[in-house]
Amino acid sequence: MSEEAGKAFVDQVRAIAAEAAPARPEDELEAFRLRVHAILSKELKYAEVEWNDQRDLDFAVEDGSYRFQFDPREPRYISILGRAPGRFSDEASRVRALQAASMTSHVVKVAKVVVLKVDDNAWIAGTSVEAVLPSFDVDKAYIKRLVSLVRHAGTDFFKRYEELAAP
Amino acid sequence: MSEKSAKGFVGGMSAEAMALAAPTPARQLDAFRLRVHAILSQDLKVADVTWSERRDLHFVIEEFEYRLFFDKDDPLFVMVSAGLYAQIDDEASRVKALEAASAASRDVKVAKVFVVPHEERWVVGAGLEAVLPSFDMVDKSFVKRWITLLRGAIAEFRRCYDAG
Q1: Which CATH number is correct for A3-165, 3.30.160.20, 3.30.565.10, 3.30.1460.10, 3.40.50.300?
Q2: Looking at residue A25, what is its pLDDT?
Q3: Is residue B32 part of a domain?
Q4: Model-level pTM?
């Protein structure tokens, strides 16, 4: 076998090995992003499904805006972020929001609610649902369930906040 | 064929069809319970993994007691709880704990920390919950990750509370 033919043979074996190698999560992430986009926009028919600068997905369901975040450093970690109703601008309402957030996080499945400072005198409540996926093999029903869980957390939070605020 | 034997034949066919039907999450739950028990006790070698009366799993790692709950009404939902591990008596500590719980829940992945009323006091708890796409996705590294995330949430809460 000539040197040239030997080199070609080695290159061919390398190419076959590369094709046969299992895909790494990092490589699969982009395909997963596109699949989630299709699930949100075509299968679930949510409105305003758009990519942001970080290649996360913003979308709207009824009156709420949500963000589906991907993590390039940990491709199998996903989160859906939302915002609960309300803006809290004094100490009493901030503490009530913290209490309602804690109670909701305790009671609802998977989702959590946190109170975030937006400026020196205002706080809002953020909702999220997160998952570390064992594989990228998720379907419409799974994504729909996650969105439903994060939406429910926002509703539950506001109900509890109003109950705490009631005289 | 008599009516009785026809009924028997149909009954037999129905039973066979049931046996051949694809397993549902509800039917798979008990096997999943046993698999998680094996992952904890044999693969991860966690000591004292025990069943509760409701067929949930209790186990201890270092100073924390954990409970892994299964939900027969929602079989693909699982929850690992670190239990209620701190009690708070006064209002200033309660507000500090609420702030720390919110900050920890914001900063850690998946797990959550909460402060809730319990009897006459307030208690802190931490949990991690998941809705699984399917049972066969859960393996040793997945369960280990859950526990690591939950321990991380407790550590982060303590750090935030002490810094608060």
Answers
A1: 3.30.1460.10
A2: 66
A3: yes
A4: 0.83
